[in-house]
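Before the break, one more example. Copy the sequence into your notebook; we will annotate it together after we see the structure.
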Amino acid sequence: MELSYRVRDIKESITLKLNAKAMELAESGRHIFNLTAGQLPFRPLNEFVDLIRSELNFVRSYQYSPVAGFQDLRQKIMNYVQKSRGINFKDHDIEFSCMVSNGAKHCLSNVLGALIEPGDEIIILAPYWVSYPQMVKFCRGVPITISSNIFDVFIPSLEEIKRAISSKTKAIIINSPNNPTGTHYSDSWMKGFGELMLENPHVNIISDEIYYELFYFDPRPTYFYHHFPQLLSRTVIVDGISKTLASTGLRIGYTVGPKDLIDVLTKLQGQTTSGANSLIQRALVHFDFDMVAEYLGPIKGHLRSNAQIVRENYRDYNLAHCWYQPFSAFYYMVDFTRTPLMNDYRKGPDDKEDYADQICLDFLEKYGVAMVPGGDFGMPNAARISLVLEKEQFAEAMKIIVSALAKKL
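Here is what the structure looks like once it is written out:
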């Protein structure tokens, strides 16, 4: 069977691939420190679970939902986004709306599918979530990458973004707080970005805010639309319950944006997947979203503690020059480039090859530590680790990582 060019070039998700390899080794009896997780290993709120259980008695919980989601849930989401972000959609001349989808990833694929014409350019800020460029390519768009580095704590240059914008630029994707770096862009950067967007009225903004609630050091995340509310007229906000309610498997995400776009997205979703999980939607209708902050309190404390473990281990092994401070989401990027370990792989001072895949494979097989190579995140010779592991296990894993990086193992 001959496949289309759209799928021939799609890469396998390296995150899922490494996680599967780690699970395979663990099942064979190896003790594995699995730091690949993109989800919180915590039980959702009891109140949320009870609501799901209570909805099991209703026939409607097993039937199709409206394509865009139940109207009372959509309004509830709109209200929550306004309250949590400190914005008011009624202050604008256009109407805003919401659509519920099968996870935030589905939301993003819907948006890109609705916006991109063949050859359109989509600006992506690196390090980026692995699926962004693959989604853009599948929609016959052209991903334009703006790189950043550890020296700037992965804050992309606004000047470079400005130079990358052309008449072909259809949109730019912002992911703050960021997967994979565990940081979020500063308020001053957001203001500068907003000014840049005002200068380029043809550029749409896709704001992936799935980690918005998960910051564990102040200041909390802010956005360009806080400085320039008029930009909401060409902004799409994507969020969901996967991270904030530790419910990745329930697959509920939502898109908030101008109503004319949401109407088109609804048509697209109606011809592809139809509505999202009815049972979970009905439970969310009755759920008090104000409980999220209290629920995340202990989780943020856990992430903060593990971030401290990262800092202490880098310091203890004289690798402080390779460290940066994470303060949101639940990831950290291990930069191999300036560590003694890199000399075992690099063939010379001018060698620019990306050895992250091999390094991560070696860590898994030699030390039982599973990390995700950074290449597919737009950061070669690096790896993403997750900070969610139980504290004692995480401390043991970090000691192995930094001692190997320092060639002390």
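The chain has 14 helices and twelve strands. Residues 51-288 form a domain with the Aspartate Aminotransferase; domain 2 fold (CATH 3.40.640.10). Try to locate both features in your own notes.
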